[in-house]
Amino acid sequence: MIKERLITGKTKLLGVIGHPVEHSLSPVMHNVALGEMGLDYVYLPLPIAPQNLEIAIAGFAAIGVVGFSVTIPHKQAILPLLSEITPVAQAIGAVNTVTRQDGKWVGTNTDVEGFIAPLQTTYHQDWRQKVAVILGNGGAARSVVAGCIQLGFASIHVVGRNVQKLEEFRHSWGNSPLKEKFQVHQWEELPQLIPQADLLVNTTPVGMYPQVEASPLSVEEMADLPADAIAYDLIYIPKPTLFLQQAEKQGAIAIDGLEMLVQQGAAALKIWLQRPIVPVDAMRQALQNHLGNW
Predict the structure, then answer these.
(1) Which residue among 52, 192, 261, 291 has the highest number of C-beta atoms inside a 10 angstrom radius?
(2) CDD domains annotated for this entry (predicted)?
């Protein structure tokens, strides 16, 4: 049983910024982890409207915030407010973790590490022979593309419904060397792509609670997914999503977004605390307990 912690004048502050942020599950897993380690820290949800972002970051420096997570809509807007951005965050063009180092704000992105963690630990495959098909071209797709490139996939296909947004996604990588590592496709091309997929990833919000009866793919589209493929949904409520239920009926292996959430959080905690090991199992269990029967 985790002992009740006392907040004192010495308690150090961590948190998550977003708008809205009250539904974030990060405080659940981080506060359990901090309690397990017996550290005098607290992790809070910090709602910050876009127009207040710059003044808030200055305020965090003034009150000695150790570090914070970044969620929608600030992952890209925060870039100009940071003194340093790690290469992985620069390549993706988004930051999800900020830490105070030598009086400066340093931004990185642990979403890539979070995404690839369950693939690396559970499925020991030579990804260099594999094909990844990624549904959606929003912010989450950026981390997934970078993760697939890091794993060394032979080909990576990003599929979207809106031609203009697809082009914007492609151009938004600028001069990044990652830009040449993936292709973009319109949704109509899916029938040709799905039969090739070794990894099929849903980065769209389709199927997320409360729209639990929705899936980004029709039953007909999913029917061509190879039986030995891995279907990966970044959504973790409900568990499993209709998308993953469809994939499992095809014989595919299913991974939901909970493990990515846990692993990106664990990676961030290691950075803030400058520790090589954090209680990942306790973080995962805390989220599972909190989500209950979802």
Answers:
(1) 261
(2) NAD_bind_Shikimate_DH
pLDDT at 1: 44
Sign of the dihedral through C-alpha 137, 91, 120, 283:
negative
Whether residue 293 is annotated as binding a ligand: the answer is no
CB under 8 Å to 17, separation ≥6 — which residues? 46, 47, 48, 53, 56, 68, 69, 70, 71, 74
What is the C-alpha to C-alpha distance for residues 48 and 70, in angstroms, rounded to an integer? 10
CA atoms within 13 A on the CB side of 224: 13
3-state helix, strand, coil in the chain (%, to 5): 45, 20, 40
Decide: pTM greater than 0.85: yes
75 belongs to the catalytic site: yes
**Is 228 annotated as ligand-binding?**
no
pLDDT value at 215 more than 80: yes
Q: Is 212 exposed, middle or buried (0-12, 13-18, 19+ CB in 10 A)?
A: middle
Has 137 been labeled as part of a binding site? yes
CB 76, CB 70: distance < 8 Å: no
Regarding beta strands 97-101 and 67-70, do their DSSP bridges make them parallel or antiparallel, or are they unpaired?
antiparallel
| Residue 13 pLDDT level (bands cut at 50, 70, 90) | very high
102 phi and psi angles, rounded to 5 deg = 50, 40
**H helix or E strand, kind and range, residue 157:** strand 155-160
Token duo for residue 30:
């981080």
Q: How far apart are CA 177 and CA 72, in angstroms?
A: 26
Select which of 75, 130, 165, 239 is catalytic: 75
Determine the 3-state secondary structure of 142 from DSSP.
Answer: helix
- Helices 280-291 & 26-36 angle (0-180, nearest 10): 140
What is the DSSP secondary-structure string of 202-265?
Answer: E-S-TT-TT-TT--SS-HHHHTTS-TT-EEEES--SSSS-HHHHHHHHTT-EEE-THHHHHHHH
Omega prior to 238 cis, within 30 of 0? yes
